[in-house]
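Good morning N.,

You mentioned wanting to compare the apo and holo forms, so I went ahead and generated the holo version with zinc ion. This is what I fed in:
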Amino acid sequence: MVSSSSHASLYKIWASKNRWSEELRCKCDEPATFSISITDENPGRKFRGCPNFKDKYKKCDFFLWLDPPLPNSHYKEIMCNLYRDLEREKDVKMLLKVFVVLMVLLLLFVVVLVMMMNKLLDERI
Ligand SMILES: [Zn+2]
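and this is what came out, ligand included:
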């Protein structure tokens, strides 16, 4: 008899060799891209799909979920909130970077201003 945990580890081995590998190709014979869904219906769910899915002439509809669906709306809501928190964190980090760049520019401006004032004072003496 095979336990459920060994089923899980067998699935991981199979997934690592098949679904997760770069060798997975779509109907266009291109490597299927790896993505993570950010929709409200499937938040955080990993999938692979055709890199040309926006190209209506190629008509490739290759798509494969890598994770099972979330069991209910409670988990979906938790994942959506986590993604929103991550987005807010990214926004805060970006604002901090802009703030640091502005502070460095301000410091440079003050240094140049002080140097110019010193030069002017030296010329007057
Ligand atoms: Zn394709």
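Residues 73-125 form one domain.

Happy to go through it together on a call whenever suits you.

Best,
F.
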